[in-house]
Amino acid sequence: QLHLVESGGDLVHPGGSLRLSCTASESTLHDYAIGWFRQAPGKEREGISCISRTGTISNYADSVKGRSTISRDNANNTAFLEMTTLQPEDTATYYCAAALDVCSRYLEWYKFWGRGTQVTVSS
User: For 48-90, what is each residue's pLDDT tens digit?
Assistant: First the structure.
């Protein structure tokens, strides 16, 4: 079993930056691809980024591409999502999730989820 906890969410002004963290316990991250998702009130959960088991491959949704960086530190059982130039439309609860072997566009592929961290972008 893998337990994930997100942290780093905050209230920021437009143009600001955040680094979100996803820390694992009970088991280790090295067997899992790690995805980041977000869900705004009243909207569907959307995938925004994913990183492969070893960190050699990563992908980003168009909404965050160019201003986000996903990374991982398997030795410390932690994954990260850095976001810059945050805008109000980035306001959401951000989740990390773990999938065996490879990244996927399907939410069902991810077997372990954190409970989320809130990001609010407002003037």
Answer: 999 999 999 999 999 999 999 999 999 999 999 999 999 999 9
Phi, psi of 76 (to 5 degrees): -110, 10
Residue 30 CA to chain centroid, in angstroms?
Answer: 16
Does residue 1 carry a pLDDT above 90? no
Q: Assess contact for 4 and 114: CB atoms under 8 A.
A: yes
CA 13 vs CA 20, 25, 89, 91: distances in Å: 16, 32, 12, 11
Q: Which two tokens stand for residue 21?
A: 């963290």
Would you say 22 and 78 are in contact if contact means Cβ atoms under 8 Å apart? yes
Query: What is the 3-state secondary structure of the chain?
Result: CCEEEEECCCEECCCCCEEEEEEEECCCCCCEEEEEEEECCCCCCEEEEEECCCCCCEEECCCCCCCEEEEEEHHHCEEEEEECCCCHHHCEEEEEEEEECCCCCCHHHEEEECCCEEEEECC
The amino acid present at 2, given as its one-letter code, is L
State residue 92 phi and psi, 5-degree precision: 180, 170
